[in-house]
Amino acid sequence: MASTVALARAAAGTGTSLQKILQQSTPGFGFMQAFFKTWLKLDLTTLAAALTIFGTISSALVVLKGLGMKVYWWFTALFTASISIASSDRLNREILNWIGAQVLTRQATRILTARTETIQNDAWHHRRNHVERNDFNHEKRVPIQYLPTFGTTWFIFERNVFLVRRINTHRSYVMGVPDEYAAAPEGDEPLVVMCLGRSVEPIKRYLNTCRDFAEKQRESYITVRASKQQYNRDSWDVTILRPIRPLETVHFDETAKAELVADIRNYLDPNTRKFYTARGIPYRRGYLLHGTPGTGKTSLSLALAGYFGLELYLLHLPGVRSDSELETLFTALPPRCIVLLEDIDAVGIKRQVEMTEDEDDDDDSDDGKSRSRCTLSGVLNVIDGVASQEGRIVLMTSNMAHKLDKALIRPGRIDKMIFLDNISQRSAELMFLRMYTPDPSHPNLNLDLKEGALQRLALEFSSAIPDNTFTPAQLQGYLLNHRNSPGLAASEMGAWVADEDRKMEEAKAHAKKVAEWKAKRRQRKTMELLAKTMESADLGAAGKAIAKVKAVVENEKGVEAKAEGPVVNGEKEVDNGLKDTSKMQGPVVNEESSGDSKEKESTETTDPVVNGGKNGDEMKNESTKPGEQMNGDSSPDEVVIDTEEPTAEKII
User: Fold this and answer.
1) What is the pTM of this model?
2) From the CB of residue 364, how many other CB atoms can be counted at a distance below 10 Å?
3) From start to end of 125-179, where are the E strands?
4) In the sheet where 151-157 sits, what is the strand order?
5) Which PANTHER family match (predicted)?
6) Which stretches of the chain drop beneath a pLDDT of 70?
7) Buried (b) or exposed (e) across 384-413, using 16+ Cβ within 10 A?
C-alpha cells in the first residue's frame, strides 16, 4: 500500500501516467494487465488508483482520530469536572444501581451488560416494588439485572450533563474492537463521574442522591454482607438484602432481651465513645450468643442489626483460609457495624492434650463440625489486637460454650454472654398469636378468626408444651405446617409433643451409646500407648503418657458434666439470661459425687512405674483386652460395651 501511494505521488510529480510508471517499475506488469483485462475484465491501473485513494483516506482518518482525542481531552480538562470512585467502594455499586434503575430504562440504552441477580440489591428491589408480577414463575427463576457496560453513559441530572465512565482494567487486547464489544464487566471496575462545567458541586449532589436512593431502598431491609474469594483473596463482596425482622419475633427470655438491647443502645451513644476515648479504653463491644441449635442465635443477630440500623457482616470461620485473610477482612470493616462470627466452636474449642499422632480427628470431632484453617490466636488478634478497629460490635454464636477457650471469652473480648434456652410456654403463646394475627397489608392471606377465639387457641396450644423442652425452630416448623388451620394446630399439639419426646429420647440414647463407644476407643488407644512406653523403660515418656491418661479421664468427666446441663467456665446456667463476664468467678472444680467411685479410686489406683507389680509385657497384654471386647472397628450400634473393663483411672 505504501509503495503504491509512493508511485502515485511520483506520477503526479513528474506528469507521467501511472500505467507507464507501473510498467517501468514492475517486471511483467504489461502481461498481467493484459491477462486481467482479457479474462477478468479488470484494469489494474484503475485498481491501483483506487487503492491509492483508500490508503490516503485511511492515513488521514488516523491523523484525524489522534487530533480528535487531543481535542477531546483538552476540552475535558478545561470544561468538565470529575470525581473518581474506586471499584471496592460501596458508592461504586450505588451509582451503578441508580443508573440501572433511573437511566437505562428511560433512555433505552442500546449497549448494556446483563447478569443473573444472585444478589438481591437495591435496583432489584426498586423494580420489584414498582412492577410486581402476578405469576408464580418469577420467584422460581433468577431475575436478570441490566447495568452499564464499559465506556461512557451520559444523562441529564438537575439540568446538568453527566457522563459516567466504567473503566476496563482487564483489557482483552482484541485489536480494533472496543471494550464494550470485547468483554463484559466483572464488577471490579472503577468509575469516573464527569459533569459539564468547572464545579464539582453538581457531582457531589448527584453522589448524595445515589446514596439517598440506596438508603431509601434499604429502609425495610437489612444489608447483610458476606465474604467472597476473588482473585485469590477474600473481600466483602456478596451483598444480600434481608427483610427487617422485629425483635418480638425472636423468642427467649424477655428480661435478658431488654438488657441486651439497652446495653447495645448505651454503647452506640456518641457520649459513650467520648467516655471510652477520654479514659484510654478501646471502644469495642463483644457478645456471645450460646445455646442449642435452633434457639435463634442467628435470628437474634439479624433482628439486632435491623433494630439499630446497622449493616451485618457475616463471617463463617470454617470458610476462612488463613489468619492473614481473616485480618484482611476485619481491616476492611466500616467503623459502625455488627460482625457475626458463626461457628466460633471451629477455632475456639479448648486446647486438648494430643493422644496419638495418628488419632482420627474426624471420629472425635464435636458434632461433626469442620475445623477452621484460621487459628485461635488469629481470631483473638482481630478481635482486640493492636491493629483491630474500634466501633464495631462483635457477635459470636456457639453451640458448646462450655468448651470454648477461656482466652476467647474473657472480659474485654466477650463483655456479655446471652444464653438462649428452649422455648417457654409464654413464648410459645406469643409465637402462636404472631403466626395467626391478621395482617392489614395482606388481607387476602388473613384467616377469619375473632380475637377471643385466637387467644383461646393460643392458650390451648401453649399449655400442651412443656417448658424449656423444644426449640423455637421446632415449634415454628410445626406452625408452618398448619398455617391455614390454627384450630388443628392447637388440638394436635399434644400428639406432636408425645411424638417429639419419643424421637428425642431415641436420639439421646443413640448419642450416649456413641459417646461411650468413643470413650472406650480413646481409652484403648491410650492404654496401648502407655504399654509401649513401659516397654521402652523411658520414665519421662511414661510420665507424659500418664498425663495423657489423666487428660482422657478429665475429658470424660467433662462429658458427664455436659449431660447434666450447659456449663460455662465452671458455672452452670439453668435459666435463660444475660451473663456479664466481668463478674465471672474462676473455674469450679467438679468433685465426684459417688462414694463407691472414690473408694475404688483410692484402693485400686497404683503407679505402674513405681509399683512394678506388672512388667511391660503384662501391661501390653492387658491393654489389648478392651480392643478384643469392643471390636474397635465396629459401629456403636453393633458393639456391646463391657462396663467391667479396666478404666484409665485404675491403671493410674
Assistant:
1) 0.62
2) 14
3) 144-148, 151-157, 160-166
4) 80-85, 191-196, 160-166, 151-157
5) BCS1 AAA-TYPE ATPASE (PTHR23070)
6) 1-19, 22-23, 117-142, 171-176, 229-234, 237-238, 348-372, 387, 440-446, 448, 451, 535-652
7) eeeebbebbbbbbbbbbbbbbbeebbeeeb
The rounded distance, in Å, linking the Cα atoms of 580 and 582 is 5
- Look at the alpha carbons of 302, 308, 311, 315 in this order and tell me if their dihedral is positive or negative: negative
Q: Which CATH architecture has domain 233-419?
A: 3-Layer(aba) Sandwich (3.40)
Residues shown for the chain: 652
Query: Are 234 and 328 in contact, with CB atoms under 8 Å apart?
Result: yes
Domain coordinates in residue numbering, the chain: 2-76, 86-219, 233-419, 425-491, 499-651
Hunting for cell 513401659 — which residue is that? 534
Number of Cβ within a 10 Å radius of residue 495: 10
Q: Which residue type does 593 have?
A: S
Give backbone dihedrals phi and psi of 409, rounded to 5 degrees, phi first.
-110, 20
Taking the C-alpha atoms of residue 518 and residue 523, their distance in angstroms, rounded to an integer, is 9
- Give me the helices (H) in 565-615, please: 595-604
- Grid coordinates belonging to 611: 509399683
Give 52: exposed, middle or buried? Use CB within 10 Å, 0-12, 13-18, 19+: buried
- 409 and 288 Cβ atoms separated by less than 8 Å: yes
pLDDT tens digit sequence for 240-267: 778 888 898 898 888 999 999 999 999 9
> Closest Cα to residue 532, out of 544, 550, 516?
544
* CA contacts within 13 A on the Cβ side of 469: 17
Q: At what angle do helices 201-217 and 90-102 cross, to 10 degrees?
A: 80
Which string of DSSP letters, residue by residue, matches 472-513? HHHHHHHHHHTTT-HHHHHHTHHHHHHHHHHHHHHHHHHHHH
- Could you tell me the three cell numbers for 242? 434481608
Nearest to 103 by CA among 144, 152, 149, 153: 153
- Return d(Cα 436, Cα 67) in angstroms, integer: 72
**Helix or strand (DSSP H, E) at 114:** strand 112-116
Q: Which three cell numbers stand for residue 647?
A: 478404666
Convert 265-325 into a string of H (helix), E (strand) and C (coil).
HHHHCHHHHHHHHHCCCCCCEEEEEECCCCCCHHHHHHHHHHHHCCCEEEEEHHHCCCHHH
